Amino acid sequence: MSSEKVHVEHCKGVNGLDKVILREIRGCSAEVYLYGGQVTSWKNELREELLFLSSKAIFKPPKAIRGGVPICFPQFRNIGSLEQHGFARNRVWSVDPDPPPFPSNTSHRAFVDLILRPSEEDVKIWPHRYECRLRVALGPGGDLMLTSRIRNTNTDGKSFTFTFAYHTYFFVTDISEVRVEGLETLDYLDNLKNRERFTEQGDAITFESEVDKVYLGAPTKIAILDHERKRTFVLRKDGLPDAVVWNPWDKKAKAMADLGDDEYKHMLCVEAACVENPITLKPGEEWRGRQELSAVPSSYCSGQLDPRRALFSG
Questions:
Q1: Which of 90, 193, 227, 232 to pair with 158, CA 20 to 30 A apart?
Q2: Considering only 84-93, 146-155, 171-180, which range has the smallest mean pLDDT?
Q3: Which of 246, 224, 210, 236 is nearest to 172 (CA)?
Q4: 83 and 76 in contact (C-beta within 8 Å)?
Q5: Where does substrate bind (predicted)?
């Protein structure tokens, strides 16, 4: 009986860290660590892993977990005294005892609601009170949905400003055989060139060296095509106008203690983000952002992958 199936399991993970496993009837699953509020695994009905997790990932505070979907808040990038990509990804979140209603399909049984509030130490680093909520849900078809709600709970009347990203690491067979569709003709900031602004010229993004770009005003749907595996990831986003594309390539990979020397070949970060125009919330105001991931078989056309079938359907 499907009603007897365990959709949500609370258990211990690496180094005794608390985690939640979400399961759907067809065999899809996701794994969420309370440390970082971080999805570390997403598998399809064939039990194939769809997210990249470094073999050298360090599951020990204060180091962020390398892979999965780290939450970048209250900043994306290294600005001022805050650590790069903010502190949400290396704090311990709690299961939300009283989540507000999230707009989602009532047929989704596999979900968990997490919340992060500032500690007194956090307030010294970033002097604001907030509630950062995250719902991680697994759809009946295996789609992975992340919905974030951030509320300003300051009592001193002060607004705060933040940037945000779902720093998603996709598992790919061979980075040199991957292409990203949906970002053509967009302006982007190149982080390898002092955030200089350029316009994308290619008909798709392909990879033959280090890439670290923020695409501005990106569409709500982006496709990542894994040519070798004949698989297309479709990323849908809402409330997050930008998209980050990142791969460290060989030299930077070797310099990273928590990434294997050759693991850059099997990962690609494509991230729903809000980077260019930060979000400002007055006390009592709330922001909402969402990212939905699905994986579909790629179709072929004239020997080439036909991403538009995945990109423009649905």
A1: 90
A2: 84-93
A3: 224
A4: no
A5: 66, 84, 89
Handedness of CA 68, 72, 77, 81 (dihedral sign): negative
Measure the CA–CA gap between 310 and 314, rounded to whole angstroms: 8
**Phi/psi at 129 (5° precision):** -100, 135
Spatial neighbors of 283 by CB under 8 A, at least 6 apart, are 152, 153, 154, 155, 157, 158, 159
HSE value, Cβ hemisphere, 13 Å, CA-based, for 277: 6
- Run of H or E residues at 120: helix 120-125
235 close to 291: Cβ distance less than 8 angstroms = yes
Active-site residue list: 167, 271
Residue 193: exposed, middle, or buried by beta-carbon count in 10 A (0-12, 13-18, 19+)?
A: exposed
pLDDT per position as a tens digit, 100-155? 877 655 567 899 999 999 999 899 999 999 999 999 999 988 999 999 999 999 99
User: How many CB atoms sit inside 10 A of residue 282's CB?
Assistant: 11
Burial class (CB in 10 A: 0-12, 13-18, 19+), 11: exposed
Find out whether 84 is annotated in a ligand binding site: yes
Residues in the chain, overall count: 314
- Within a 13 Å sphere around the CA of 142, how many CA atoms are in the beta-carbon half? 19
The answer to whether the annotation marks 290 as part of a ligand binding site is no
Q: Is the CATH number of domain 2-312 2.30.30.110?
A: no
**Residue 1 or 44, more confident:** 44
Phi-psi region of 283 (alpha: psi -120 to 50; beta: other; left: phi over 0): beta
Average pLDDT over residues 282-305: 81
Per-domain boundaries in the chain: 2-312
Q: Helix/strand/coil (H, E, C) string of 176-229?
A: HHEEEECCCCCEEEEHHHCCEEEECCCCCEECCCCEEEEECCCCCEEEEEECCC
